[in-house]
Amino acid sequence: MDNYHIDTKCVQAGYRPENGEPRQIPIIQSTTFKYDSSEEMGKLFDLEAPGYFYTRLQNPTNDYVAAKIAALEGGCAAMLTSSGQAANFFALFNICESGSHIVSSASIYGGTFNLISVTMAKMGIDVTFVSPDCGRDELNAAFRPNTRAVFGETIANPALTVLDIEKFAEAAHSHGVPLIVDNTFPTPVHCRPIEFGADIVTHSTTKYMDGHGAAVGGAVVDSGHFDWMAHRESFPGLTTPDESYHGIVYAEKFGKEGAFITKCTSQLMRDLGCIQSPQNAYILNLGLESLHVRMERHAANGLAVAEFLSTHPKVVHVSYPHLPSDPYYKLAMKYMPDGGCGVVSFELEGGRPAAEAFMGKLKIAAIETHVADARTCCLNPATSTHRQMSDEQLAAAGIPAGLIRISCGLEAADDLINDLEQALA
Ligand SMILES: *Cc1c(COP(=O)(O)O)cnc(C)c1O
């Protein structure tokens, strides 16, 4: 499918039925798989033969959908996880261990920020956060001899900053480590980080990929570009024998293109079991079939709403990377010339009470802690996700009390704008 447009890959990549087989991806609702001899099954356990034996590690339904996501991102292999949190944890923990260090953009999803700065810290993994806008010197200075990965988000949730992927990839590679990019917000329809030097791409498929608010999930995609054996000392998990698999060396046995996802499946999925259910993978694939059509509308609605808000007298500030006045416009045009996503954030005059009153008047946009599905929704961090913080603390965190994040769905732009207009009035 390599030569087809991304639109065609959204619809058809991953699962190619043979003569007489189901047109739609079959849901293999089975925990286990049957074999004729212990010898055949033994080969699977030794990673000597491909095949399925237990759905905690792998399931064919998931693999069809993962193969589609790999094709969309231009990767060589992918796996589905139970959530976006699991995807980011697996991508990092597959190459980090106690004593490792991560360089991460500070502008990332709150859940990932906690994962890295609190939970992974308890595992002995350190992090240095840098501004996505930092200069090359500051970025290079963040690296240590034990740095094993660089992490960032293409369009950050919720700050809507844009990562200069080439700048981060260059710094990562000059220090002999891979760049991991969470590409949840633009999706591969609008940005393919691997084309700009990212080595690993992750997703919360819960967002636009599913797109209907129906199934929590995640994905990890490997570009196959990073040469683990060239940095043998840094990545012993991939370049030295795995005693839990009779001394297999992943990077030798499976090569650049197979090592990362094979190890992630056979070690992390085996031991931690954060697998996506085949039912959810099926639902995710229904979303992927229309991803290219939906992203176009999400981005068009986002831009229309951002343009409307930026001219309204009661709106102090609008953040949307594809608005020409936005500080990230140049990067947005470089990495996402066809559009971004449907999420816009804006600050209302009058702080917390104004935001609360405004949101109470909205008729189409629902108040939800979610983004990136078909139905428009919005959130005021000061009265919800960040309500334990005072106005002063919020200001220090760069979240004004009157800040509202709106995730534009697939409704008509005119109806969304009219709804915002009446609520602002
Ligand atoms: C939501 C989100 C996550 C976490 O994904 P879950 O599926 O909720 O676990 C990670 N990264 C980004 C950018 C997100 O928006």
Descriptive account of the structure:
By secondary structure, the protein is α/β, with parallel strands linked by helices. It folds into two domains: 6-286, Aspartate Aminotransferase, domain 2 (3-Layer(aba) Sandwich); 291-424, Aspartate Aminotransferase, domain 1 (Alpha-Beta Complex). 39% of the residues lie in helices and 13% in strands. It has a seven-stranded mixed beta sheet with strand order 1-7-6-5-4-2-3, sandwiched between helices. A five-stranded mixed beta sheet has the order 8-9-12-11-10. Helix 1 packs antiparallel against helix 3 and helix 3 packs parallel to helix 12 (278-289). The radius of gyration is 22 Å and the shape is globular. The termini are far apart. The mean pLDDT is 95. Pyridoxal-5'-phosphate binds next to helix 4 and helix 5.
Ions and ligands: pyridoxal-5'-phosphate
* Strand element count: 12
Form type = globular
What is the succession of H and E elements? HHHEHEHEHEHEHEEHHHHHEHEHEEHEH
Low-confidence parts, pLDDT < 50 over ≥5 residues? Answer: none
N→C terminal distance:
51 Å
Return Rg in Å: 22 Å
What is the makeup of the main sheet? Answer: 7 strands, mixed
Number of separate structural domains: 2
Protein structure class: alpha/beta
CATH architecture of the largest domain: 3-Layer(aba) Sandwich
CATH names the topology of the largest domain as Aspartate Aminotransferase, domain 2
Q: Could you list some keywords that capture this structure?
A:
single chain; 425 residues; alpha/beta; Aspartate Aminotransferase, domain 2; Aspartate Aminotransferase, domain 1; seven-stranded mixed beta sheet; 17 helices; 12 strands; 39% helix; binds pyridoxal-5'-phosphate
